[in-house]
Amino acid sequence: MKQIKKFLYFLVRDILIWKSYKTQAVLGILSGFLGLLQFGFMGRFIAQGNYFPMIEQYGGNILAYFISGSVFMSYTTLSLTTFKSVIRQEQVMGTIEYLLLSETPLWEVFIYTIFSRLVFTIINTGIVFIFLIYTFDVEIKMNIIASIILLIITMISLSGIGLLSAGFIMLTKKGDPVSWVYSFLTGMFSGIYYPVEILPKWIRGVSYILPTTYAMDGLRKTLIKGYSLYEIKEDIIILVIMTAIILPIGIYWFRESFNKARKYGTISQY
Question: Where, by residue number, does the polypeptide cross the bilayer (predicted)?
Answer without folding.
Answer: 21-42, 62-83, 109-136, 142-171, 178-196, 236-254
